[in-house]
Specification:
The structure is a homodimer.
Chain A: E1 48-52, E2 57-59, E3 67-73, E4 76-81, E5 87-93, E6 98-99, E7 113-116, E8 120-126, H1 127-136, H2 138-162, H3 167-182, E9 189-190, H4 194-201, H5 205-217, E10 221-225, E11 228-231, H6 233-242
Antiparallel strand pairs in A: 1-8, 2-7, 3-6, 3-8, 4-5, 4-7, 9-11, 10-11
Helix pairs in contact in A: 1-2, 3-5, 3-6, 4-5
The structure holds a DNA duplex.
Chain lengths: 243, 243
Amino acid sequence: MTSELAITFCTDATWTGRAHCEKCHIRKLMLFSELPTSAFEEVLQPIDQYMYPPGSVLYEAHTHKQFIYSIRRGMVKLVHIAPDGVSRIVRLLGPGTAIGLELLDGADGYHHTAIAVNQVDLCKIPVSTIKQLEDGHKELCMHVSKLLQDQLDLADQWIVALGTGTARQRVAQLVLVLDEFFSEDNGAFILLNREDMAAMIGIAVETVSRMIADFKRQKILYRFKENYYQCNTEALQDISRQG
Amino acid sequence: MTSELAITFCTDATWTGRAHCEKCHIRKLMLFSELPTSAFEEVLQPIDQYMYPPGSVLYEAHTHKQFIYSIRRGMVKLVHIAPDGVSRIVRLLGPGTAIGLELLDGADGYHHTAIAVNQVDLCKIPVSTIKQLEDGHKELCMHVSKLLQDQLDLADQWIVALGTGTARQRVAQLVLVLDEFFSEDNGAFILLNREDMAAMIGIAVETVSRMIADFKRQKILYRFKENYYQCNTEALQDISRQG
DNA sequence: CGAGGGGTTGACGCCGATCAAAGCTGGTGG
DNA sequence: CCACCAGCTTTGATCGGCGTCAACCCCTCG
């Protein structure tokens, strides 16, 4: 929908268009966290940082842009769009995860469409750079494995938690996921719009709305500020288990 | 349920309990396919082969046996068992795939319970052996990444195809998956029992039975021999798309 | 031959999809 | 500042799909 917007993130005078990963303050979370600083001296192609507004399409399925993205801030949804236009959200990813890793295994284009849910900051890393660094640094390869394993665990959780049970149970599970993985410093999380939630758990928008509205009435879910919400975790866990 | 049955596969006189991976005739499919023969001279711990009868439990979730398994023949289901006993099949895997890879990323025990669906032959590889080989052979690490990526793709397909649509559409999708990935030399596939199918797509056993029986009546699905079946792929694709 | 396990079929009631309409909210322009 | 509109959310009404319970069939095995 929205075209790609590339906005440089580091606005200070020393910003050159490179990411300065070796100085990155959240580097522990990122793709290169295992690498010694010296490794970056070998990098030829630049690693740029970008900010994307909500709704931006980071990449589309089957296109082949030759970039891996490491998420620094915000939420990204990976969407599968069927030939008939029906879209289903396959995964929701936050800071410290990487998307587009399928290109490293020689995939012919991305496997999903990636869309920014809220304000997203990310590092754009050329595939060639990763392959180059992997040559000399086995720990990067193992880190990639770990990221893949994490995503596999997420996918499995998705299948189990969001694909089973009544609509009420699934919505409860979804809110618990938002609370667990996407809470920000204030201890609250952004409540996705009903359409996105419906696309995640495979039920109708109206049904999601009913459940969420119900949770709000029961004070299981309450507004913190703006569209940030908090929840009663135990109540939701009860619902997710036995209805 | 069934206790682990370890049956040696190679019965010839030279069989010593090792897998002789370097001579394995289906080695191209297996975990070590990228490695030069010389690499196996470094291996200290043995790699054993086993055969398991249908229903055998290969390992249980949260146990920590320190073994990766590479599937040579047969189908393995990865099962998630909820605290309340409800089980859900998360993935169905066949020859050339590996299970238990989560141990390589330092997971504290297996993430699922693995159960043989039919006769299963597999190689049992100690985690320490993989780690040892990974040290000197980066291509093994990359092969592990590829296996993980394949499983991630499978999981995504599972979410999209088997978690969406009416019961009729899901069963059609499931049969298509069996046909595509688990057909044997005779061009037919084993039709799973209704309980397993229900656990895969998250619907009631009776509903699965109704749909399968219906497909049989419509000659979309027909017995080849024994419990091997063939299907009309196009008819099923039509059903999976629009009902 | 009877028992038992899996598969099939029927009856019924409820959950949730669908269609429709009415609040709510934020943005825009007069 | 208010009117208006577009998009999102909420709520209601209706109907069909599917979960549930139950009976029965078929095959295998003791």
